[in-house]
Each structure stands twice: as structure tokens, then as C-alpha cells.
Amino acid sequence: MPPTTQPLDDTTTRLVAGFGESGQRLLQFLSGKIENTVPGELVSHSVLLSGQSGIGKSLLLTTLAEKLACKIIKVNLGRVIAHGGQHSALRRIFASVPHTQPVLVWIVDPELFCGIYGCLVEAFVQKSKSMPMCCVAMTSRYPDRVSVSLRCIVDDHIRLLPPGKTERLQLCQWYAKHNLPPADIAQLVEATHGKVAGELFADLSAMQKNRKLPMAVVESAGVRWEDIGGLSNVINEIQESIIWPLRYRDRFRRLGIRPPRGVLLHGPPGTGKTMIARAIAHEVSANFILVAIPDLIKGEVGESEKALASVFESAVRMPSILFLDEIEAIFGSREQAGEVGKKLISQLFLELDSIPEDANVMILAATNAPELMDSSILRSGRLDKKIHIPRPDYASRLDILRRSTRHLSISNKSTTLEWLANNSLSGAEIKALVRGACYSAIQRGSADISKEDFEASLSAMNPANILFSKK
What we know:
Elements: H1 10-17, H2 20-35, E1 46-50, H3 57-67, E2 71-75, H4 77-82, H5 87-95, E3 103-108, H6 115-128, E4 134-140, H7 148-153, E5 156-159, H8 165-176, H9 182-190, H10 197-211, E6 216-220, H11 235-247, H12 249-254, E7 262-266, H13 273-283, E8 287-291, H14 303-315, E9 320-324, H15 339-354, E10 361-367, E11 385-388, H16 394-404, H17 413-420, H18 427-444, H19 451-460
Helix pairs in contact: 1-8, 2-3, 5-6, 8-9, 8-10, 14-15, 16-18, 18-19
Protein name: AAA-domain-containing protein
Organism: Linderina pennispora
Family: Belongs to the AAA ATPase family.
């Protein structure tokens, strides 16, 4: 098999589950076509996705395509008219479909393409069967009006039906991203029998607006410790300072040990600070709350402080890792901060000092410039523990490479990875390197990734970040 795409994150998996068996079938269709480039294997090339207005056809299709790194080319009569209204315009659209990257040709309302336009659509669907990285999906509210000849050459027909109770719960949890209490979501699910995704989301949006939810992204962390490499020098410190206090709260309390309330992760860009925070949340089965720092800045007087207070209020309601990324951007030295920055610093102090002793929450912050931090933030009871996350050395880079490629087929794997580890790359850069090599192998139609694929990926990266000469 060729190299596969990365597994879907928990959030997208929940969205697929919200569409039941139909969601799984569409996922299998898209991933099967994108990942299967071996000639002779049976693969679906085209699908008709039908369902009533608002049921979620466009949402499900575009979300999966984007998560699978698939370029989307949308074809509808409106676009054809915008290109001149002639059948030659439709020919040009189809001719523009690339052959060297994963692409989804999305045909909207195929029942409207009649005459020569319908013939052109049918011809392209047939042609797509010989395009290894192209899949065709058609969305329609009226599948019975699609021409019989077109329906006969489409490989599959997936019907989206109004969600049942279990599916409504998955859709609500996906949309609300835990920003609504479970009791509110459960009540909405019970009261919305027969409603489709668009109607559910409208109801949830109204509920969120009424509750004035915080400016933060709340999600279930999908990163595991085994996904992270090169941390042997700091793993014990992370375990003792962060994971143990959350996992063994009762033991710490009985022994009279007061663990850190907050931890500052500091180190160069790309060393995995955010990934570490996500893995910690997964390890202790806590929600991961990523604060959108720019969203804290409000034009109205006092609104920025209210937004920050709402974030903390949400965090203490449930087991949480509250992650403040690039904290120095706002919470730097008070001497250098503006008026809004100074007020936010004061509000942060207040929130940190007001967290209840029994709250199952840990504050993590990340910065590339710890020297810019206000020293008052780092005192006991606030961000009172600092952990340095350095750029990986050779052994760490090799560990990251092995973990990042453990599911991939690589020619002369050990030798190739040892050679790659000589390049002075960060963890994030190594991930990008591996991803680029996968795409290079896909373009060659190969089931194995070669040293040449990694060389091509390296050459496409910023040379300033590559200190090892490729000989």
C-alpha cells in the first residue's frame, strides 16, 4: 500500500459519527480513492450524495476533503455561467483538474446539467476512473431527477437521512465543542427529533449566544505520548510537575504537597510545546482549552477582562488543561504593555489567584521568549514552574523521525532516518519533512518512500533551517 493520510482528529471523527453509516461510507470513499494508487485494485471513483436541504451534504463533504488534504474544485451552473455560459466553459473547468495531487471535483445539483452539459459531466465521470488521485462527488436534493445515464455510471449513491438521537448528540457535541454544559446539549437533543444538521446548529448557535461563551477553543485532545519523540530530557519533569498532580490529587492532598498551579513551557519555535500540552490533556483524560489570544482583545472598555474571566470560568467547571499560547504577546512586561495589556495582566493575576483548591484544572502557558514575561506571573501560586523545551539533538531527531514514520514503508529505513537526523530541524520541521516526502512518493505512484523523496522534501524547505550538507 502507498503511504496513508494521517488519522482523522477526534473532532472530525465525531462529525462523521453524526451522519451514521452514511458518514462512514463517504469517508471510506474519499480516503479509499486518495490513498489507493495501486493499479488493478477495486476503488470507487464517483459518488452521488443526496439529502434534503440543510441536512449537511456540503458540510460533511468539504470537511472530509479538507482533512484529507484534498483540493476542491466546485462545479455548478452558476460557475459555468460566470465563465461565459457556453459548454466550452465547462470543458475548461474539467480540463483544469490536476493529475498530480489529491482532488475532489464537486458537482452541485447534477440534475440541472442537461443536454450537452450533461454529456460533458458524464464524460468527465468516466474519465476520472483513469485519474488515480481524482474523485467525483455530486450533491443533490432531488436524486430522482438526475439523468438515468449519469446515475448508471456513478459508483455509489449515499443518502443522508435526518439524524437519530445518537447522531444528533454527536453533531451537537461537534458543533458546540464542549462550550455548552452536557445537560444543555442533552436537553436539546431530546427536543429536536426530526431536525437536520442545519437546524440543530442554528439552535446551538442561539444557545451559545445567550450564554456569552468564552473566547476559547475547547476540544478533546487527540495527541498521545507515543506520538511525541525527543522528550527524554524533560519527560520526568513533565510527569512530576503536571501529570502526577492531576492524576494523584488525593495523594498530594493527604501528604500536604501543594503542586504547581501553572506551568510555563518555554523554548524555540517548533519544539512541540502545543503538542506536549495536548498530549498531557489526553494522558489525564482532560479537556484541552486553547485560548485564542487575539480574541481576548475587545474594543469596548472592560470586555477583554470579561472574556478572560469567562475562559477561566469555563475551565474550572470540568477537568481541563487551559493552554495560553504565545502568552508573552499580551502578558509581557507591564512596563512595555499598553493599557489593555496592563488590565489583562491584572485580570490574569486575579483569575490565577481565585482558582478553587479542589478545581481539577492545570494552567499551561507557552512562550518563545521567557525573558519578556512579567516576573509577577511566575511567582508561587501562578505560573510557578518553568520547563524548558529545547531544540532536538541528533538522538531526539532520530526518535522523532522513527515515531513519525512508524506506519510508513521506507526504502533502507534505518540508514535513511539516520542520514536525515543529521539535519538540524525542529520537531515541527521534521513533521513537515515527512509529509512532503509522502506527497513526493504519491506523485511517483510508489508504494515506498525513497531517500530521493526526502531529498525533494528537504530542498523545498527553507535552506536556512537545514544545516547538514546533503552529499
